[in-house]
Write a structure and sequence with these properties.
heterodimer, A: 34% helix, 18% strand, B: mainly alpha, 0% strand, elongated
Chain lengths: 1123, 227
């Protein structure tokens, strides 16, 4: 927050109020996105046909919602309006038709309140000929100070090397004034005499003007026509050193008296000349990059990146505190001064075939007509604007693709009223149409009935909403405003690709300038290993690898990628690493080379060495890079072959190993079968194994690969066949036991040996292989002693309970150690067709709903979530059915339900109590580091200790009989698969962090119910906190989300209650609600500890959950109602 | 009485002799028991030692163990070595035992057998290493011929392996002095037969080529003569 440091603040009390809303950031303009608008054309509040300040104030919310943070107002001073206000006749006032000085004050205050800055025009090169200064000057005697406010001459041939800018209307820079009986100097229209900055009184007067408006709270000035301030004989009278001296004096005044203010130079010059206007950071803060703009158009027209790359390479470095201002269109013509005459001809041909569209040295059209209203090209142009170095300026109306009217004189064609709605006068004014300052656009394509804010705001795919999303994305990264620019030079010249880098952040922008789809190969070697995340949809792309990065872009398509280091590689991605990178092992004798006692006597030493190399180098290197390696970042000392078997079911042979992986922090057992293939005999096999290569191997003249056998189709089939046959294989110490279930035959079909295998997926803790559409082989990697509940429970549900909504289990592979303890190595399941898990399904659903609701003008209907909630009902039913199935009495002691004793409940309470204590300790310890919005909630929770303990104690023993059974153990939306409007419950592994024995214990199944309820809460926050939403969006969707979570909980619990009635799980559902609350609290406390350790920015979600469960209203109370 | 005495005299003498022999016999039995224990230990030690240096892998690779198991022998080559050592020690014990009992001709007979056992062991060793070598050469020839794309690489490989194997078997037989001249001579006859067969095959097969060559050389001289 800014403190009023301005010495004049005492004299200008309103400013203090204003500045409270403007954050203190001297370099704010580096991240600015400017919205340029004309008061008179924006909105008319009083029905006089002319826009005004109160009108703009009314529309400030629209400007803020667009996502810009700065408004640039065209001149609003009293003026004869011969040059659209650039002919000022009174610097200290407001044009009476626009409003009053008080209105300006209000505007600035209101804008600051919305986080918007306001910059305006300081037209100091010239005044109107109606300005009192000029009127006084023409009457004052020659040589007097008043006369010298302007530049006079007796002849019209002085400064004859100076070019004429408005070639269409002016023939000379001198005009005869009959009153003064002399010629006066004007670089623009003859009614705009140039001020004489050689007269110190002029500068003084100008500085007075500037301070007047700064004191009113204006954040900056655009210095109009700044290169022409001073005239010297024998020069072109542009960019003179004396001019720069004047600017430095102005800047010195700004720096001496104000903070966080901006000077923006309008110097339509080549970049090297414009560079001068930054000085050494002591002239203007910003300056327009004029030559870039026509070259963007040229690049699109020529479908070649050259013009843009060339001009950006010619652009000099600018001081650290300076910034370019870039734009596509503005209130003037699309100026072609900064292109060669040939290029100008080309541009005219391409963009202004109609001579009426040309004016001076430029084209007077808006963006949309220039792009022939091709939405894709308009978006492409905007994407370039928003990603090029500099602060982009958006001209009002271009965000909805407004058209122009080239039949209006001068540049008025691009200054027509803003099109708000299809109502009269485009919703701009209630005045009679003939009173409007200019008629609105009315043609069939661009007319206000076709193009207007109201329609586009309601259309989620409109240009307006697209712009909002783009600006929201741009706001997410400082690299756009402040980053370095470096071009890539892919072979395809139609692709413009560049990197914006700021600190560690890197953004890759790729644009297809062509009118057809284009491929491109990008050299991103410098960013190898990073994961490109497409910024609009936040989709992770495959990581950047060894090869050039291949992308295909649709016609006029573009991508912005964040080259992320903190994002997981997409789960479906398989690294096809060139195996040349892998180390080479010399196998002198096939598999047996690793075993000292399996080689001929004179090679025993070699075998020992090879084994050591394998265990201390090859394996650790491979394992450390695998996704399933649990202790990421913990260097592996040795991966010793704990037990192994050379498995040779028929002609092939695989080495199945159990590894003891030793790290600094301990030991873990991993399951790793390995396959060997040699290039000469089996090229295809080598290729298939390449992604899972452990090492390259050489045996005499043969080279090949040693790879993870799960990538070997024959191996996976052999496993399936062995399970079917119920084999046992003797290992060096223990044995491998292959067990089929009764469902095997039905699932595997007649020829399991012929099922085609899909490429294996290497997931976080296991590897999954799909065989045909029938089987699903899941190999555990990190193995723990004991039977995995997933097999045990899955088998029970398949064979005993015949529960239909789980994945049927076909068999398993276990390792039986010498002492008889079994360890699960792999699980064979039936494949179930599905539409993804419940978590992503829910998030997609919420996102879609929120997006639609954000764009909709009407309030959400009452049964908004009807279809989704019927799914939740099914989910509740399925959960209940699962629990009923698990409560089946079969005589198996591991599954038979037990009655709930009072002692159990006391134990659980005790545990939650201890969890709470641990959580409090952790929270206290980290409280200072929490994000600000979580601080209040954390404090509230710490204060409510006793309340929490009371809640735990309040949970009483249900009066009726309750059962303890086996249960899912880690139940949430991610553990159910959506399958044609039904759910398949998966993953009975239980909470991975707990030991197997604990996971196999019986407990109240209501714990699953509580887990699912918490999952709803998480889904809601994940959807609301997406970074594509603005805070305003979030405020709007928060109640929607809360409604959703409330309804989902209610329906889920109701369905669960209905289905469990009479099942004997508990006497009545009402009695056990307290238990659910207890388990929910336990889960929320667990989440809280987890987030504290891993994702502090998410801490608020479980915090609010815990608070709500304690009956306390959290800070931003949107948490779900406690059951 | 005296008659009885005279009649009993031989019995007495016999009994005295038996009395004198019994300690020797007991000693011999003792020696034998110790020898048997020793033999067991020696067998255990030698089998362990051979396995420790992966001798079993060598014979397995050489195909010797496979050969044995095909012949219905349950143990492998290492086991046979163990057995040989076992019997060597047993035999040695027997010799000592018999010597102790003064039965000199039995030890000399056994001595022959004992002297034969080391030869058998050496022959076995030759067989083991030779067979491994033969297999190695066979594989090397096979790999080489494959690499230079000779069609009958398999046949050539096997041929070289068996040729070496033949020599190895002969050397082994020589070592144990079995057959001696007969084997040697029949081998020579066999080799001569093979060489002759090859010569014949090349001669007949290359008849035309040879004729062409001769044609090329001879007519010129004839022409020279003519001119």
């Amino acid at each position: 927050m800014d403190k009023p440091v301005n010495p004049h603040a005492e004299k200008a009390p309103p400013q203090r109020a204003i500045d409270q809303y403007a954050p203190d950031d001297a370099l704010w303009y580096k991240d600015a996105v400017v919205y340029q608008l004309h008061i008179k054309a924006f909105f008319d509040s009083n029905g006089d046909g002319m826009g005004d300040f109160p009108g703009l104030i009314e529309k400030l919310d629209y400007v803020r919602d667009l996502g810009v943070n700065t408004i640039w107002l065209l001149p609003f001073y009293p003026s004869p309006q011969k040059d659209d206000g650039y002919d000022v006749s009174d610097y200290h006032n407001v044009h009476p038709q626009y409003g009053t000085r008080n209105d300006v004050r209000t505007l600035v205050r209101e804008a600051h309140r919305r986080g918007l800055r306001v910059i305006t025009e300081l037209v100091i090169n010239h005044t109107s000929d109606q300005h009192p200064w000029f009127q006084a000057a023409r009457r004052a005697p020659p040589g007097s100070s008043k006369r010298d406010f302007y530049v006079w001459s007796d002849t019209d041939t002085k400064y004859d090397q100076t070019r004429i800018i408005f070639t269409d209307t002016e023939t000379s820079n001198w005009t005869w004034d009959p009153v003064a009986k002399a010629f006066y100097w004007h670089r623009f229209f003859s009614h705009q005499p140039d001020l004489n900055f050689d007269n110190p009184k002029v500068l003084k007067a100008v500085i007075r003007v500037m301070r007047f408006w700064f004191d009113m709270g204006v954040d900056g000035f655009r210095l109009d026509a700044i290169p022409y301030l001073i005239e010297r004989d024998g020069t072109t009278n542009e960019n003179l050193p004396e001019t720069h001296a004047v600017i430095r004096q102005i800047r010195a005044q700004v720096d001496a008296h104000y903070q966080n203010r901006l000077l923006l130079a309008e110097a339509n010059q080549w970049p090297e000349d414009v560079r001068e206007y930054f000085g050494d950071g002591d002239e203007c803060h910003m300056a327009y990059h004029f030559p870039l703009m026509p070259r963007i158009y040229m690049a699109i027209a020529q479908e070649d990146r050259h013009p843009v790359v060339e001009i950006m390479q010619q652009t000099p470095e600018i001081p650290e505190n300076a910034q370019w201002a870039i734009f596509l269109r503005n209130h003037d013509e699309l100026t072609l001064e900064m292109v060669t005459s040939k290029e100008r001809d080309y541009m005219y041909r391409m963009y202004a075939a109609d001579p009426r569209a040309r004016i001076n040295l430029g084209i007077r059209r808006r963006l949309a007509p220039l792009m022939e209203n091709d939405l894709e090209r308009i978006k492409l142009m905007n994407s370039l604007l928003l990603s090029m170095p500099g602060s982009p300026i958006i001209y009002y109306g271009d965000e909805i693709g407004m058209g122009d009217n080239i039949f209006l004189g001068d540049r008025n064609g691009v200054r027509t009223p803003m099109q708000w709605s299809p109502d009269r006068n485009a919703g701009f004014s209630r005045a009679d149409p003939q009173r409007l300052f200019l008629p609105p656009i009315m043609d069939a394509i661009y007319g206000y009935e076709a193009v207007n804010v109201e329609a586009q705001a309601r259309d989620p795919s409109s240009l307006l909403n697209w712009m909002r999303r783009m600006l929201a994305v741009r706001k997410g990264s400082k690299a756009f405003g402040r980053g370095r620019l470096s071009f890539l030079s892919p072979g395809n010249r139609k692709i413009l690709a560049y990197l914006r880098e700021y600190g560690d952040e890197a953004i890759l922008c790729v644009a297809n300038l062509g009118r057809s789809a284009q491929p491109v190969e990008l050299d991103l070697a410098r960013h190898r290993g990073r994961v490109p995340v497409e910024m609009m949809g936040r989709t992770a792309f495959p990581p950047i690898g060894e090869l050039p990065y291949l992308l295909t872009l649709p016609a006029c398509g573009f991508y912005w990628f964040r080259l992320a280091t903190d994002i997981e590689v997409p789960s479906w991605h398989a690294e096809l690493l060139a195996s040349e990178e892998r180390p080479v092992l010399v196998l002198f004798d096939g598999w047996t080379s690793f075993f000292r006692d399996r080689v001929v006597p004179w090679r025993m030493r070699m075998a020992e060495k090879l084994r050591a190399q394998f265990e201390t180098d090859t394996l650790p290197r491979f394992i450390a890079s695998q996704r399933w390696y649990a202790a990421k970042g913990d260097p592996i000392k040795r991966a010793a072959l704990n037990d192994w078997v050379l498995w040779q079911p028929d002609r092939s042979s695989w080495l199945i190993t159990l590894l003891q992986v030793e790290t600094a922090s301990g030991q873990d057992a991993y399951f790793l079968p390995m396959a060997l293939a040699f290039g000469d005999s089996d090229d295809e096999q080598v290729r298939a194994l390449a992604p899972a290569t452990l090492a390259r191997v050489r045996q005499q003249s043969q080279v090949g690969v040693l790879a993870d056998a799960f990538a070997d189709e024959a191996f996976c089939r052999a496993l399936v066949a062995a399970i079917g046959a119920g084999r046992e294989v003797k290992c060096a110490q223990g044995r491998l036991r292959f067990t089929p279930t009764t469902a095997y035959a039905g699932l595997a079909g007649d020829v399991p040996g012929k099922l085609p295998m899909a490429r294996p997926k290497f997931q976080s803790s296991n590897t999954v292989v799909m065989l045909g559409e029938r089987l699903f082989l899941k190999g555990y990697r990190r193995v723990r002693i004991g039977v995995n509940p997933e097999f045990e429970v899955g088998r029970f549900l398949t064979e005993v309970a015949h529960f239909a909504n789980c994945v049927p289990v076909a068999g398993a592979i276990e390792y039986v150690a010498a002492d008889g303890t079994a360890t699960s190595l792999a699980l064979l399941q039936g494949q179930v067709a599905n539409q993804g898990d419940g978590w992503s399904y829910t998030l997609d659903y919420l996102e879609r709903t929120f997006d639609t609701q954000l764009a909709a003008a009407t309030a959400a209907p009452a049964d908004l979530h009807g279809a989704y909630l019927s799914l939740v009902h099914t989910l509740g039913t399925r959960t209940a059915e699962l629990h009923k199935a698990l409560a089946l009495r079969s005589g198996d002691a591991a599954f038979d339900p037990e009655p709930l004793q009072a002692g159990d409940l006391a134990g659980w309470k005790q545990r939650v109590h201890q969890d709470a204590l641990a959580t409090f300790a952790l929270l206290e310890q980290q409280q200072a580091k929490l994000p600000p919005q979580a601080q209040a909630n954390a404090r509230a929770l710490l204060d409510a200790r006793q309340q929490l303990f009371d809640r735990i104690e309040a949970c009483g023993m249900p009066a009726g009989a309750c059962l303890k059974t086996r249960y899912h153990g880690d139940y949430h939306l991610g553990q159910v698969l959506v399958s044609s409007n039904d759910f398949i419950i998966i993953d009975f592994e239980g909470e991975p962090a707990r030991p197997l024995a604990e996971r196999r214990m019986k407990h109240s199944p209501l714990r699953d119910v509580a887990g699912m309820l918490r999952s709803f809460d998480y889904a809601r926050w994940s959807a609301v906190l997406r970074d594509t939403y603005t805070q305003a969006d979030r405020d709007r969707i928060a109640p929607l989300a809360q409604g959703w979570v409330r309804e989902a909980r209610e329906i889920y619990l109701r369905a669960y209650d209905e289905t469990t009635r009479g099942s004997g799980l508990f006497a009545s559902f009402g009695e056990v609600r307290g238990l659910i609350a207890l388990f929910e609290l336990e889960k929320a406390l667990y989440e809280l500890r987890y987030e504290l350790g891993n994702r502090p920015t998410w801490i608020n979600v479980p915090l609010q959950g815990v608070l709500t469960l304690c009956g306390i209203t959290p800070e931003t109370r949107t948490g779900g109602a406690a059951p | 009485m005296e008659k009885v005495d005279i009649m009993l005299e031989p019995v007495r003498t016999f009994l005295i002799q038996i009395a004198a022999f019994l300690p020797k016999f007991a000693l011999a039995i003792g020696v034998l028991i110790v020898g048997w224990l020793l033999a067991k230990f020696a067998r255990f030690a030698i089998v362990k030692a051979l396995r420790a240096v992966n001798f079993n892998v060598l014979t397995e690779r050489a195909g010797l163990d496979g050969f044995l198991s095909q012949g219905g022998i349950e143990t492998d080559t290492t086991g046979i070595f163990g057995l040989l050592v076992y019997w060597l020690v047993i035999l040695a014990a027997l010799i000592i035992g018999f010597n102790g009992m003064g039965l000199t001709y039995v030890p000399s007979l056994l001595g022959e057998v004992v002297r034969f056992v080391p030869k058998l062991a050496v022959a076995l060793l030759i067989l083991a290493f030779g067979a491994y070598f033969a297999r190695f050469i066979g594989n090397a020839v096979l790999a080489y011929c494959r690499n230079i794309n000779i069609q009958d690489a398999d046949v050539l490989g096997k041929l070289s392996q068996y040729a070496i194997m033949t020599f190895v078997v002969l050397i082994a037989l020589d070592q144990v002095n079995v057959g001696g001249d007969i084997v040697r001579e029949s081998f020579l006859i066999f080799l001569a037969g093979v060489v002759f067969a090859l010569a014949l095959a090349f001669g007949l097969g290359g008849k035309d080529a040879a004729a062409e060559l001769i044609d090329r050389w001879w007519p010129r001289e004839k022409k020279d003569d003519d001119s």
